[in-house]
Amino acid sequence: MLIKKILPAFIVLALAVYFIASYRGPESGVSTNIDRNNLEKYWKTKEVSVAENQFLLGKKDASITSRFRIRSFGLTLKVKTTPGAIGTINFATSKSYDASNFRGYSVLINNSDYSTGLPQKTGSLSKIRNNFIRMAEDNEWFDLNISVLENHISVSVNGKLISEYVEPPNAKRLENYTGIVLSRSFISLRKISEQGEIIIGEMKIKPFTEDIARVTPTVKIDSLQDVIDSLNQREFPLIDFHVHLKGGLTMDQAQMHAKENGFCYGVAANCGLKFPVTNDSTLNSYLQSIQKEPVFKAMQCEGREWVTLFSPAAVAGFDYIFTDAMTWSDHKGRRMRLWMPDETFVDNDQQFMDMLVGKIEAVMEGEPVDIYVNPTFLPAQLASRYDELWTNERMARVVSVLQRNQVALEINARYKIPSIAFIRKAKEAGVKFTFGTNNTKNDDLNRMEYCLKVIREVHLTQEDIFMPKTKAERKILKKGLPAAITG
């Protein structure tokens, strides 16, 4: 019996001693600069040019692979890409690359503009914590840091945390991705595109061979998180395009919530008459204050007067802009805000609905917005009759104006609108979709539950989801502002 108790402990100890003794990499616990003098000692290269301590990967499948195995490490790189270049940094991976039987994790290098190349951008922990936000540009040096401490992975770009993941015990993976687990194995930097070049100007590694305590996941592990993880593994764009820093919510809190759950966020300022941002000066100041944050930069165009307050050049600084149809003046000239019961006037329900649809058409036709948010919202007096009042004819009119003007339709998690029937009609017409919470405080971001339900019931795919355009293609620059207020 004593032997049975001692033997497992002895085996664990023997394996630990073996791994430490067999380690042949840079000194543990010390940050070692990898240069032309020690490159071949610790790394195996393929199609890599070395000049003045810079490593250039120009051909597809050019690679730098460690000769040593390691589980925990810190890797710091200074990188520059030229247009078209895409690469991956793989760890816990095989010594020989096999795309059909890949194992380990991958961090993506891709600085292409929005709506060009891969939608996932630099800093993505591919298929686990996908990043769709551009944090670095081609032809500019950027810092990339990867830390793996036992089961805790973090990825930073230019000092900003982009991806963070704590691998739980028995991590759930789709059938083709069961190899995405941490292990003591190799690290590899690989160029995967035909175009462009990846230049490594500086490369440091700090290995850790001693035991490091495991981290307990902070995210709630439940059936909803299983759905989120499954969608991430399919590289589905889980982006909440409609988040506000209000009610005490800070940028750091919003980003922490997004990273824990596996989302990306778009953070929007409220811009319009009697709102915090009312002119180009305040608009530019706000944009500058969040310019380096790893979120989409969004502008919510409030009311109908916004078109008279801002210039197209200032508006074009945002990744996308959106508006709703909740503020407008009725046939009697009464300015209404539909979410305020004492500012909403419904003299006749059918007449009101016809006015609402007409206002939606006017706004989406005339204003150069990318997304229609809080869509199909009805005031409290009518909300319980949503399915009755949103007739097929009215739905068809709204879908048509969105499709004609290439305006995406928000699936709103807070109000749980539009209805499934409405969304199906929009999908059939080829309208793109976004997800949005429109939070009001610091504890109501939740986990996009209604959006996840819609993905499942309507069978949305990656191709159905809106993505921002390149700056040159932004609608505000192509369409301009209307000559008069639309509503």
Radius of gyration: 26 Å
Classify the helix fraction into a percent range: 10-25%
Largest sheet geometry: 8 strands, antiparallel
Strand residue content: 15-25%
Q: What's the CATH superfamily of the largest domain, by name?
A: Metal-dependent hydrolases
Mean pLDDT: 93
First-residue to last-residue Cα separation: 84 Å
Structural class by sheet pairing and helices: alpha/beta
Shape: elongated
Count of domain modules: 2
What is the name of the CATH topology of the largest domain?
TIM Barrel
Low-confidence stretches: 9-21
Q: Which CATH first-tier class of the largest domain would you pick? A: Alpha Beta
Textual characterization of the structure:
The structure is a single chain. This protein is α/β, with parallel strands linked by helices and 487 residues long. The protein has two domains: 27-208, Exo-inulinase, domain 1 (Jelly Rolls), CATH 2.60.120; 236-479, Alpha-Beta Barrel (TIM Barrel), CATH 3.20.20.140. The protein has helices spanning 2-22, 39-42, 223-233, 251-261, 280-290, 312-315, 349-366, 386-389, 392-404, 420-428, 449-458, 475-479, and strands at residues 32-33, 43-46, 48-51, 54-57, 63-66, 72-81, 86-93, 105-110, 142-149, 152-157, 160-166, 186-191, 198-208, 239-243, 264-271, 296-301, 320-323, 327-329, 335-337, 371-372, 408-412, 433-436. Strands 1, 3, 4, 6, 9, 10, 11 and 13 form an eight-stranded antiparallel beta sheet that branches. A seven-stranded parallel beta sheet has the order 14-15-16-17-20-21-22. The model is unreliable at 9-21 (pLDDT under 50).
